[in-house]
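Example for tutorial group B:
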């Protein structure tokens, strides 16, 4: 390449990388795939070394990306928080090994997961967490202490055997499961969704209001020494064991290796395990275990020479966008969907991917006819990673969001503060279909005879104009409803009687199931349970003082609000539903049908078992999801409560439960027990022995348990 061309290409690559950095780090909305980004970076590095006259100090490859945000105090890192040199090829790891062998001898390698999150520094003084900071540009980061303090698994105080002055470094991440749930909530509320768990984590940690962070499913893993308190360890692995002993979550997997063959095998093993972790990994980190070699090995501008990152090829597939269709959801949100040429990816064949909203399509510049890279966000949701612009022919068509509802033809609107476009016609049949389907779904009223297709038919044929019509139907007539088409008619038949029975049984389902069934934005299964726990009956939700209190306290007190698990946005959404014309008519109709579901009218609680009649409250960080324990407790006859009352027999306290909480419980006559004791108690369940926690759950950093209620 001649000089002029090199100069132009360098400028082009810098612009591309800088824009990608801005989209990724500042907007938390990536616009290019990892692979392309890495390729640009390598090409730029190579050109800058071939043409040093064009290499400048401000080049994006000479600066650690990962911007600083406005609104946060700045923290200087001592020593700087470095990055890692990375490779995609095992051959390059062999070069790394050759360099290490040339320099030192008698060492061991350690292979760890490379967690794809946000790197974090945690500083303790006098045994207390005093500061949490992001890496920022490596030298200076953002002070995010208030936000990080909301992460349940970050120890706020250290045990007496830990150094009083300590800094540890690691990675904050959003759990895969939490990411999927959060995006569903965001989408239902008409808000921006996140491209992947890493971006969702970044966005959550950079909130100016830490109450928002508190509601996000974040966790951490620590994997590195900070500048203070970590000097005494001969090896990295001993240090990690000590971190774990001091209460820090550490990686659930690592492998000690003597030879490069063992390193390669460990890298492959880790890759095969990557989907079993609660966090996403994008590679492996190979470290020298013996810390005495670190100084002599030194560092490059990028990172230490005692460690190297090996990045896995992203799991992605190339396909084309054949069309972009628009779906209308149960709250009227218009969601553009890419109809794809079917392609296998990570175990399934994908033919559709949500494009979320018009802004997202514009940002990624996705056009009908485009070749794209498809990935699975959070390992589950098919998503367009990036467009392959080189493959454009010029025939691709830019997508335009419809200006009328594609189903009912009614008006659409984009509400202030939302990215979603909504059909505002409450009678829109598409909305009704999805509301009906949701109403009948398993976690709602569990009407098995009524799935998505039948919901569509009921609405199309005018059988149902509102979900509550199910309680007023002529089921005998319904048996002869044609659910096929004119050419091959098929009767609803016996399903009509099944549905009649399920509908009749649904009348006595508990409040939480009904509240979820209504389909209020922000009110998922867990939130519905938390809200139900604070109310006697369905009709109490209208004008609920508890919900009003949640909102008022939020405005007044900020962090103290955590006394109740109810989320502010959800409280607002419920109150707004019942004050709406539709919501208040819905409640009136339920009451006139004689339905006013009660809290805790659970049919599932066993009448015998080791915990019969025992009130149980789960609190703190447990190694299994709260729902799982709740189900085991109920199976054993126990009653899961959300708050400790005089009727609570056991408070099951996970990690990080404050002494005040346990003392308060004891004062009410409650026995405070740990998970092991609970499993012991459950072990004598007649309906089956409780299984010990799964391998991963045992060693993985524990899940923060939502909902610590003290009523
Ligand atoms: S050790 C000097 N160990 O990957 C930095 N880093 O691309 C030493 N990362 O900046 C870091 N998992 O944010 C280390 N097991 C692990 C890691 C890890 C993820 C991150 C870290 C680092 C980045 C480099």
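The residue assignment follows.
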């Amino acid at each position: 390449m001649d000089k002029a061309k090199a100069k132009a290409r360098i400028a082009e690559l810098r612009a591309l990388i800088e824009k990608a950095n801005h989209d990724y780090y500042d907007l938390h909305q990536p616009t290019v795939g990892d692979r392309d980004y890495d390729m640009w970076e390598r090409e730029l590095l190579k050109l800058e070394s071939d043409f040093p006259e064009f290499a400048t100090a401000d080049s994006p490859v000479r600066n650690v990306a990962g911007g600083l945000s406005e609104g946060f105090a700045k923290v200087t890192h001592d020593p700087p928080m470095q990055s890692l040199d990375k490779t995609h090829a095992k051959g390059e790891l062999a070069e790394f090994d050759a360099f290490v062998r040339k320099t030192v001898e008698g060492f061991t390698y350690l292979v760890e997961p490379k967690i794809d999150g946000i790197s974090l520094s945690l500083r303790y003084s006098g045994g207390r967490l005093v500061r949490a900071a992001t890496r920022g540009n490596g030298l200076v980061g953002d002070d995010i202490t208030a936000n990080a303090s909301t992460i349940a698994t970050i120890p706020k105080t250290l045990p007496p055997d830990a150094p009083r002055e300590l800094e540890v470094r690691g990675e904050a991440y959003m759990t895969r499961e939490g990411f999927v749930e959060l995006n569903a909530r965001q989408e239902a509320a008409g808000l921006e969704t996140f491209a992947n768990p890493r971006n969702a984590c970044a966005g959550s940690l950079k909130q100016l209001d830490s109450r928002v962070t508190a509601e996000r499913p974040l966790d951490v893993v620590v994997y590195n020494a900070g500048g203070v308190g970590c000097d005494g360890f001969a090896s990295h692995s001993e240090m990690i064991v000590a971190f774990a002993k001091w209460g820090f979550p550490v990686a659930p997997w690592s492998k000690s290796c003597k030879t490069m063959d063992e390193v390669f095998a460990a890298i492959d093993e880790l890759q095969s395990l990557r989907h079993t972790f609660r966090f996403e990994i994008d590679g492996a980190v190979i470290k020298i275990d013996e810390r005495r070699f670190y100084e002599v090995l030194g560092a490059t501008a990028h990172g230490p020479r005692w460690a190297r990152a090996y990045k896995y090829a992203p799991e992605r597939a190339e396909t084309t966008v054949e069309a972009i269709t628009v779906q209308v959801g149960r709250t009227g949100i218009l969601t553009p969907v890419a109809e794809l040429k079917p392609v296998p990816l990570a175990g399934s064949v994908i033919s559709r991917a949500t494009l979320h909203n018009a802004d997202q399509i514009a940002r990624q510049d996705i056009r009908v006819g485009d070749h794209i890279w498809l990935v699975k966000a959070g390992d589950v949701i098919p998503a367009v990673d990036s467009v392959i612009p080189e493959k454009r022919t010029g025939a691709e068509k830019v997508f335009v969001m419809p200006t009328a509802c594609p189903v009912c033809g009614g008006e659409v609107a984009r509400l202030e503060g939302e990215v979603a476009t909504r059909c505002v016609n409450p009678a829109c049949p598409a909305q009704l279909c999805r509301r009906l389907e949701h109403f009948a779904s398993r976690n709602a009223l569990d009407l098995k005879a009524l799935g998505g297709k039948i919901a569509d038919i009921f609405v199309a044929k005018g059988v149902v104009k509102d979900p509550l019509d199910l309680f007023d139907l002529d089921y005998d007539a319904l048996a002869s409803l044609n659910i096929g088409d004119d050419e091959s008619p098929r009767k609803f038949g016996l399903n009509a009687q099944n549905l009649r029975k399920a509908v009749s049984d649904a009348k006595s389902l508990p409040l939480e199931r009904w509240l979820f069934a209504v389909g209020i934005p922000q009110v998922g299964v867990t939130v519905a349970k938390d809200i139900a726990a604070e109310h006697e009956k369905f009709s109490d939700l209208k004008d609920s003082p508890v919900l009003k209190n949640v909102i008022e306290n939020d405005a007044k007190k900020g962090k103290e609000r955590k006394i109740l698990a109810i989320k502010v946005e959800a409280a607002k959404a419920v109150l707004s539903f019942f004050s709406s014309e539709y919501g208040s008519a819905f409640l009136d109709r339920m009451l006139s049908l004689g339905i006013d579901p009660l809290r805790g009218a659970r049919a599932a609680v066993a009448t015998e078992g080791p915990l019969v009649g025992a009130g149980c409250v789960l609190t703190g960080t447990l190694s299994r999801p709260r729902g799982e324990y709740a189900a085991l407790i109920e199976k054993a006859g126990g009653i899961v409560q959300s708050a400790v009352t005089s009727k609570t027999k056991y408070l099951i306290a996970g990690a990080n439960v404050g002494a005040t909480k346990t003392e308060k419980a004891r004062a009410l006559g409650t026995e405070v027990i740990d998970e092991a004791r609970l499993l012991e108690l459950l072990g004598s369940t007649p309906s089956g022995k409780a299984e010990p926690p799964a391998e991963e759950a045992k060693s993985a950093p524990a899940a923060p348990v939502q909902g610590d209620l003290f009523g």
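The first strand starts at residue 74 and ends at 76. Compare this with the pattern of hydrophobic and polar residues in the output above.
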